Structures are given as C-alpha cells and as structure tokens.
C-alpha cells in the first residue's frame, strides 16, 4: 500500500531546493513550536513520514519529543490522535470499546473507536507516547498497523480496517526509566529511529523567546547557560536526566517573569528531583547565575 502525504507546497519546494536553512523555512518550523538542534533531524523525519514510514523519537525526558511530533503534525497539516502508554494499556485503550446506547426506544450495543482506529479511519497521524511503558504483550496487537499492510482486524467487531491515505505513526521513547521495558525487535524494526538531543545555545534561546513570556535578554542568556551546565552534569553522571528537562526550564522561565529566578528554578526543577545531593547541586548552579 502506498501512502501519500501532502506537505504544504512551500515546504516541499524549500526542501527540494535545499533551502532548509532559509529564514522562510525556519519561520515555518517555528510555527509548530519546536526548533530542532539541526535541520537534518527535521528533514529526515519529514522524509520518512512522506514515504509512509513510522518514526520513533528517542531521547531524554523533556528534550521536546512530544513538541517535535506536534510540529510535524502542524507541518503536514495533519490532526493527531494520541496514545499515552502505561502498564495499564490494553486493547480497549488502543482500539476502542463497546458500550450501550439507544436508537430511539431500542437499546443497542455501539462500538466507540479508540485513537488507533480513529487515526486509521480519518487518515491522520497517530502519536504513541512512551511506547516502552506498555506491557510487551500489548503493542503486538497493532503490528499489522505498523507495517506495509496498514490493516487491523478489530477484535471487538471483527471488522477489517485499512488505514486511509495520510495515516502515519510517530512514537516516542524514554530509555532506562523505571517501568520501561526494551522494545522487542519486531516492533523496533517497524520504525525509523531519530535520536532527539537536548536543545542548546541559539536554538534554546529562540525557543525561550517564542514559547515563554520571558523577554529579559540577560535573564534568557543566563537560563541558556544554566541549561548548558545542567546538560553537561547529566552527561557526566552527576545529575539525572530530569534535571536537564527543557520543559522544566521553560516553566522556570515563565515563572521568573513574576517571581525571582532562583525560586522559579526551585519550583520548576529542584523540587522535582529525588536526591538531596542533586537538589543541592542545582541550587548551587542557580546561585551562580541568579
């Protein structure tokens, strides 16, 4: 089955002409809310989705994977149905469920479609978040959805559902966290994998300006430097990945518009950490900048 996607002509032209570094291209990306660390990451994701392939976004928590998925959805002018995986994820959470309803005076059993079937029948994107949080026996239910067949037999109705043109799958994974399990090879082989690193430097500065209420240039610069130090500490094994979450940093930037920056860092970053040693480390870093 060939799946045809419709990228806006403007984006298609800019990519084909290798003008992905142009200001116009950057403006189009910025509208989606995620600025990738490098344009190759975005071009590769667009290419894979345009060819009907599934994309797996792999990276640390708070690196912007969900925002990246939303940006891709925006670029393709595609709505997106979402699945949030957990150990409780089951067939009903993925596919839908039966319920009682009324047709006039008559009581009937009605099937209410879930996110997978909604995305397939509407020809839109499906986003599967924290895919490795699901029990290993759950996700094989949609193996046929994720390969060339793009079909599934609905176990609740016995209907065979084939995805409409435009259907595509984006998934995200955080590795090494409590409650996660390694993806089995059959599932992993159904995806093109993209490593999503933390956003740093100019990209982070731009992200703060466009996604928070903070406008003070000096404060923005200090938050960018703080983020760089936190990421380096994570790389060195001094902090857990939670401490360098870009999502948490953006929250701190927002709060610092109305409360002192050190307290904003305390509420958004420090108090989320479990170990006292890590809390003190981040507090000391914040002291040097604020």
Automatic annotation (TrEMBL):
Domain AAA+ ATPase residue range list: 51-197
InterPro entries: AAA+_ATPase, ATPase_dyneun-rel_AAA, CbbQ/NirQ/NorQ/GpvN, ClpA/B, P-loop_NTPase
GO MF terms, alphabetically ordered: ATP binding; ATP hydrolysis activity
PANTHER family on file: MAGNESIUM-CHELATASE SUBUNIT CHLD (PTHR42759:SF1), MOXR FAMILY PROTEIN (PTHR42759)
Protein family (similarity comment): Belongs to the CbbQ/NirQ/NorQ/GpvN family.
Phylogenetic lineage: Bacteria, Bacillati, Bacillota, Bacilli, Bacillales
Source superkingdom: Bacteria
Pfam families xref list: AAA_5
Protein name as it appears in the record: MoxR family ATPase
CDD domains xref list: AAA
UniProt xrefs under SUPFAM superfamilies: P-loop containing nucleoside triphosphate hydrolases
